[in-house]
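Researcher: I'm comparing several assemblies side by side, and this is the next one on my list. It has 230 residues spread over two chains. Same procedure as the others: predict the full complex and return the structure.
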Amino acid sequence: GAGVSQSPRYKVAKRGQDVALRCDPISGHVSLFWYQQALGQGPEFLTYFQNEAQLDKSGLPSDRFFAERPEGSVSTLKIQRTQQEDSAVYLCASSLAYGANTEAFFGQGTRLTVV
Amino acid sequence: DQQVKQNSPSLSVQEGRISILNCDYTNSMFDYFLWYKKYPAEGPTFLISISSIKDKNEDGRFTVFLNKSAKHLSLHIVPSQPGDSAVYFCAASGYSGGGADGLTFGKGTHLIIQP
C-alpha cells in the first residue's frame, strides 16, 4: 500500500490480557516511531527504530511495553498484562530519513480499550 | 510539565479569513518544529515545518513563523477554507531530555471554519 498501515484498527482487551499491535511502514522508510495518544491529548513518543535497531525506548511507560522491528520493516508493539490506563490510540509513523527532524507519515492508529 | 503548549483548545474562523494558530515551547534545545493536521479517525498528516535557523517558512496558503526569543511559533492559514477544519498539532524535536529521537507534541487546537 501507499501509506502506513496499522492493524487492528480497534482492539478491546480484558485487563491482564496481552496484546500485539502491528505496523506496516512505507516501503523503504528507515525510521519508525510509535506514539501513544490518550483522549484529548497530543501523541506522546514511545520508541524509535532506525532500520532494525531500537535506538530510543525512553518513552515506553513500563516494562510491560515491548516493541520490535526484527527485519527493519514491519514493527510490533506488545503490551503485556494490560491495564486500564493503557487505553489509548497507538500511532505508528515512518520516515525516509533518520531521526525526528523530518516529515513523518502516520498510520490511522489502533484504538485500544482495556475493560 | 508540558514542553509544547497550545493554549487554545479550539478556534472558530470565518471562511476566507485568516486563521492563526499559536504554540509556545519551554525547552530551548528544540531546534525543529512541525505542524500536523488531523481529521477524525485518521492519523496526523504533515503540514509544514521550520528549522530554528529560520524565522519564516511558507508553503501555499500556509505560513509558519518562529520567534526564538519568545519561544513561540504560529501557523497562518490564508485564506481559510472549509476543508481546513481539523485538529492542528504543533510538534518539536531536538534534545528534550527524554525521547531524543521523537517528536514532542502539544495537545492540539481544533480549528472550525464557518461558512
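Model: For your comparison table: Residues 32 and 51 of chain B are 5 Å apart (CA to CA).
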